[in-house]
Amino acid sequence: MTRNGLQSSGLADLPFDAVIIGAGINGAVSAAALSSRGLKVLIIDQGDFASMTSQQSSNLVWGGIKYLQSYEFWLVFKLCLARARLMKEYPNRIRKIGFLAALGPDAPFGPLLARFGTLAYWAIGLFTTPAPRTFSLRAALNLEPRFAPDALRGAVRYFDGMLPDNDSRFVWDFVRKAKSFGAQVHNYVRLDSAARVDGIWTLRVTDQISGAEHTVKSRSVINAAGPLVAEVLKSAKSQSKTGLVFSKGIHLVVQKLTEDDRVLAFWDEQKRLFYVIPMGDRSVVGTTDTRVTDPFEKVTDEDREFVLRQINRSMNLETPLTKESIISERCGVRSLVIDQGQSGESDDWHKLSRKHVIEVDAQQNILSIFGGKLTDCLNVGDEVVAHFKKMGFQVGKSKKWFGEGVGLMPPTFLQQVQSLCLSTESADRVAAGLWRRHGMQAQHIIDSTSHLLEEVFEGTGITYPEVSHIIHTEMVIKAEDVLRRRLPLAMLRSEGDIASNDKLQEILRVENLT
């Protein structure tokens, strides 16, 4: 599945049913859902797939417990159902994980209300996760000795889901699924202009790798550009009733902070939830919630200092974390939905939810997706299909456009991997990662190598044959596509570690990846 770039031949002859602008989670599920029903679909992104907001999340598949504080019970119910659906369809890629929340001085409630709230969360989610439990101060410290004991009143445990791999890997699964149904998928293709004449959209696009310009025709446009959705609407000369405001969230990756493989939850000095999330042999700390106007924000020293201050005051660490402790970092801009004309400025800024809104300009056949989050992605795909039916498109019978399509890892696969690894511990990591990320293709990866399955970095479960397989089959153009998005290597290890890995650098050099 190498990238050949856009080809002029045939692009402008017969119109697509839908051209999707933006290959984040919203665009990817739209492409998979529509192409599975026989529609002719093209999806493009000016960067790599999932290279904006969809690569910067907390990797959590959750029911939105924090929205109980703002009484958004219907939203929590929908997110809990979406979480349960995803966890059923992706038993390998998504796993159930416990959240242990420390009820410290900044928590907005004590153990009694925490117990009531988590029980309500469990019930709203129709009891699809293990039951929550509260812990006294002593029990909480016995369970997690790294909790800072100062003013700790206890803890509460509840359950949600998590992506062991990065969020952009999950987006790629939908892009690949759309391609299997016949969709044309292209990364590094920029939309330059869009005009509708006689009921057909004419879009001018540029292949940013080759520099070639192309004309594409389509009966409709799906605007899934995330934080840039307003820019696409402006280019298409279309109006909207929905507006967006932006919230910057950052995460810092550090050495693993706890022995147990669970999420620790705290309230920061702004009384907002932040987490310590396991990622392989590292911990991810965050997130922040800062009002911004630029969708291309970066991590600042102020951001780093804030997160480090929160974690140092919340955990009893042998050595406090400093800037030198940071292995990698990420910064994402969330799109929060407001009504057009509103500023979004209020005392409830932190309570704005991650709901999504789909708006259709029926006169021009342009559908725009505002806001949303990964947990709700299957609902977005279903709603897009429903809107296309209302728009008069001939929507065929659906094929299964989501789900892994494979069961749990067979023992024979693990045995084969064990025979190719130096240790049982390494084999367990490698086998689990290969099966989770590739399903049946994992067998091809190990069958195609006659060498030992050596981890690129010990503890990651990622081997050199897997890196080479991804480069050759998953439309990789730049080094960061494979190191940051198809795999989480650039988050698990520092730039210096990656640069000094001669074998990895040789693979990138041979494949001409920069």
From TrEMBL:
InterPro entries linked to this entry: DAO_C, DAO_C_sf, FAD-dep_OxRdtase, FAD/NAD-bd_sf, G3P_DH_FAD-dep
One GO term of the biological process aspect: glycerol-3-phosphate catabolic process
Domain FAD dependent oxidoreductase residue range list: 17-340
A Pfam family this chain is assigned to: DAO
Tagged with keyword Membrane: no
MF (Gene Ontology): glycerol-3-phosphate dehydrogenase (quinone) activity
Keywords from the UniProt entry: FAD, Flavoprotein, Oxidoreductase
Keyword Cell division belongs to the record: no
Species annotation: freshwater metagenome
All residue ranges annotated as the Alpha-glycerophosphate oxidase C-terminal domain in the record: 419-500
Alphabetical list of SUPFAM superfamilies matching this protein: FAD/NAD(P)-binding domain
Taxon lineage: unclassified sequences, metagenomes, ecological metagenomes
Family assignment from sequence similarity: Belongs to the FAD-dependent glycerol-3-phosphate dehydrogenase family.
Protein name in the entry: Unannotated protein
Cofactors demanded by this protein: FAD
